[in-house]
Amino acid sequence: MSTISPLEEPIGYDAAVHQVSAYLKREFLSGKLSGGTRLPTVRALSRALKVSPAAVHAVYRRLREEGKVVATVGRGTFLTRDDAPGAEEAGKPISLALSCALKLPSDSGWSNAILSELLAAAGRAGRRIALIPVTGGSPDGGTTVERLLEEIDRVDGVVLLPPLDPVGRARVLEAYDAVGKPVIHVNAPSLVSTENFVSPDYYHACLALARASLAAGRRRFLYLGPVGDLASASVQQQISGLQTALALFEGEAEMRLQKVSEIHAEDGFEAMEMLLESGYCPDLVYTFGDYLAVGAREALLRHGLKVPEEVGVVGGTGLSESRGLLTVVEQPYPALAEAILERMLASLDAGGKPVPGRYLPVGFAVGASTLPGENERLPK
After folding, report:
1. Pairing between strand 220-225 and 69-72?
2. How far apart are CA 210 and CA 335, in angstroms?
3. Which pLDDT score, from 0 to 100, does residue 38 have?
4. pLDDT of residue 318
5. Mean confidence (pLDDT) of the chain
6. Domain that holds residue 269
7. Nearest to 61 by CA among 4, 1, 21, 5
8. Exposed/middle/buried for 150, CB within 10 Å: 0-12, 13-18, 19+?
9. In this structure, what CATH number is given to the domain that contains residue 213?
10. Is 15 among the domain residues?
11. Which residue among 32, 50, 66 closes a domain?
12. Is residue 100 included in any domain, yes or no?
């Protein structure tokens, strides 16, 4: 982070916004800022430039909306690309560009965590990269796919984050493969994939979870998520891990799959409420995402069931806001970023040829929704 020279007098809001923007532009043009640089905190920059925090917030918010910075709770705000601000004057001095096919939330979700860890991994590797977040559209492709195809001439490769349906992935892969540019998937594109992906090992994580729950006396498992013929490889891995443990269990146990069209808290609540009112009650609920788990937990409590004594609830995303309340998957973000960068560089060095895929161990962050006996057996 560069040294900031304080100004002498406070200035008005509009002038302050201009001052913050001008400062960042000067730092970029001087080479002190580039893709991967952590920007000063709002407090530090407002004090140093003697402007209001609101003015700094306004500039950072605009840059975030433009995909030029990424903010992650607990880590800071990072410049994600080498074309902002002022790159039209400074050129594009980058060695690797990555496009991320996912709409970026303003909070610390999956995409922001991956982006910030990629920048950190590149710094540790001594590689200067630019991340160009490609946003928009819907999970079935749409704008995201079109924008990825538009970026084909200006990027060296693509990192595909979920969600993106098989047809959209195939279009991107075919186009980039034709020009010899690698596409690295985050999560395996299919259960039989062996190349060009980095994925958490959900199969063995769910196998361990099911064994821990069976040992704790649970016998009726519910999987809540986007199941069906077009279920993603991560969904299939999770289900397979749970089912394998049940198949190997020497006793009576069962699992039910419940499809939901969306993965918000209200969807989890409605699905769980419907099942309870029909007379079905599981003793372990595993959900594809944490928001589903939050909703399912609320429905269970409203029906007078005790969590975790009578029903355990586990979220499969690992979002920070669900920690403590729920036991959740512990996403291996730093290891994922290291492996993504490693796979991308290996493919680029090989002229865009495919590279072997890689699975990474997954643990759990234990919370108040599983029993102590289960928690002791879960991989951390």
Report:
1. unpaired
2. 24
3. 77
4. 84
5. 82
6. 202-331+363-377
7. 21
8. exposed
9. 3.40.50.2300
10. yes
11. 66
12. no
Q: pLDDT by residue (tens digit) across 285-327?
A: 999 989 999 999 999 999 999 999 999 999 998 876 777 899 9
Residues 6+ apart with CB under 8 A from 43: 53
What are the pLDDT digits (tens) for 7-38?
333 446 677 777 777 777 766 655 566 666 77
Q: How far apart are the first and last CA of the chain?
A: 34
In a domain, 301, yes or no: yes
CA distance 55 to 38: 18
pLDDT score recorded for residue 135:
60
Give the distance from CA 203 to its chain's centroid.
18
Distances in Å between the Cα of 205 and the Cα atoms of 106, 213, 238, 333, 363 are: 29, 12, 8, 15, 6
How many structural domains is the chain composed of?
2
Tokens of 293: 């788990």
User: Which strand ranges, in their side-by-side order, compose the sheet holding 254-259?
Assistant: 254-259, 220-225, 284-287, 312-315, 327-330, 363-365
Extract the tokens encoding 19. 């001052």
Contact present, 43 and 53 (Cβ < 8 Å): yes
Lookup: tokens for 331: 């996403």
